[in-house]
Amino acid sequence: MTSIKMTTYSDLPKLVSDYLTKQDDVAELYSYTLSKESILKLSRVKTEKYNLREELIKELKNQYTSIELTKKQKEHIDKLESRKTLTITTGHQLNLLTGSVFYHYKIIQTIKLCNELNEEQDEFYYVPIFWMATEDHDFKEINHFYFEGSKYESKGENTIPVGRRKSAEFESILNQYLEKIKYYSNYKELKEIIEKSYFESDSLTEATRKLVQYLYGELGLLCIDGDSKNLKRCMVPYFKKELISQLSYQYISETTQKLKFNNYKVQVNPREINLFYIANEGRFRIVYDNKKELYRIKETILSFSLKEMLSELENNPERFSPNALLRPFYQEIILPNVAYIGGNAEIAYWLELKGFFDSQQVEFPILIPRNSITFINEKQKEKLEKLNIDYFDLLNDKESAIKDYIKKNKTIHIDFDTYEKQIEKMYSEMILESKKTDITLENLLQAQQKKQFNAFDKLRKRILKAEKRKQVEKINQIEKLYDELFPFGKPQERILNFSEFFGKDFDFIDVIYENINSIEPEYKVIYY
What we know:
Elements: E1 2-6, H1 14-20, H2 36-49, H3 53-63, H4 71-79, E2 85-93, H5 102-120, E3 125-133, H6 139-142, E4 144-147, E5 150-153, H7 171-180, H8 187-197, H9 204-216, E6 222-225, H10 229-233, H11 236-244, H12 247-261, E7 275-279, E8 282-289, E9 294-297, E10 303-304, H13 306-315, E11 320-322, H14 327-334, E12 337-342, H15 344-350, H16 354-359, E13 366-369, E14 372-376, H17 378-387, H18 398-408, H19 416-437, H20 441-470, H21 472-485, H22 508-515, E15 523-527
Parallel strand pairs: 2-3, 2-12, 3-6, 12-13, 14-15
Antiparallel strand pairs: 1-15, 4-5, 7-8, 7-11, 8-9, 9-10
């Protein structure tokens, strides 16, 4: 098994790339640059300020009541009692059977970074945490996974937080999947995983925790569910300020306006109140009606005066749920956390939050983009070699890959770029001369120049078609290979389920752990 890597910031979103390369325009969006040294510096600050260890340990033990902790997990929970113990966190939605394979890359990168830090120094100890997005209510984002080109999808509507959904509603689609893989070499182990997680749990939260436990419990990973009355009770003072003062909207809006001014894409726009209310029927936005001075729960008949809303918060904090922008803040209050590992979109919206964190005097974590990995089997590798192309040649899109291949292997050699430059120079000189005699000739010459360029474009397309006809067999091979490596036109890691690799020809988790870079963003191709 071999691997190659490509480390580049040019293919990242501009905001994330500028964060990593320490550009001035984004300097105010983070406290510490990305490095292990920075993690240690932030750890010295966090240990002095964090004061929820007792509550966190109690809640972790409560959430793991129905699961037997591994020796490593017990050690981690015990170590959390020390103020010298901190966490490094990743998080994800409760995707059915973990959804796409990058779910695992984030977890393994988090575990590896903790292990490396614990081996390299003894001032602090680091525990890997997986924050389960149990409160998200967009069911359609998590209700499916892909396996060998087929989509396995459980039907249902967006209603309650997904973690509260009954795991039994997924049994039918999972049984269909098990029937599909009945004769696969990894069937027995995958069947055991599914039965012990989804078929022996009451909720999707419980099922996900058991599945992650099966895969990563021995490595010491601890899952945490934020949909907890005890944890949300710790957030009452902050949720109260959110309801009354709406400071998150103020500070995040200031940041997003600056981002827009500097031509960065804004990942998530804040709402005036970044909290949901959980009722029996679902999870709904809280909005404030200025005219009637009432807090209304969207899509319901519920409304509260300020006094009633604050009383509801004090008595039933579990009914209040942070949205995508406030959830990171919730996480950083609850955990002694110093770093967060996430995808580019996650890093981008975390960078919107620094001003709000500062306003609440809460330390902002170090943000670490996750690695990307593509697995290429022996047959696919042979096809790449026969075509004399590199995997990274395919990264843009199928049509670009074909054009690049034709360009490299063309039989008709016309340097259009050189000719166009010559024409542009020639017409510029003629226009300059014509102005001396008749200024109206400029428009005529410009029109003629445009006709010449249009003719070149048509000829270029004709030649491309001719080359495609001549190389049709090779192009068909590229198209087929591209579809294998980029299912549905997307990177492999965003479509394939981990079960396509797990338990087959190699130890999936060990291979990723060995190849993944714990802190530097890398795109790695693994040949197996």
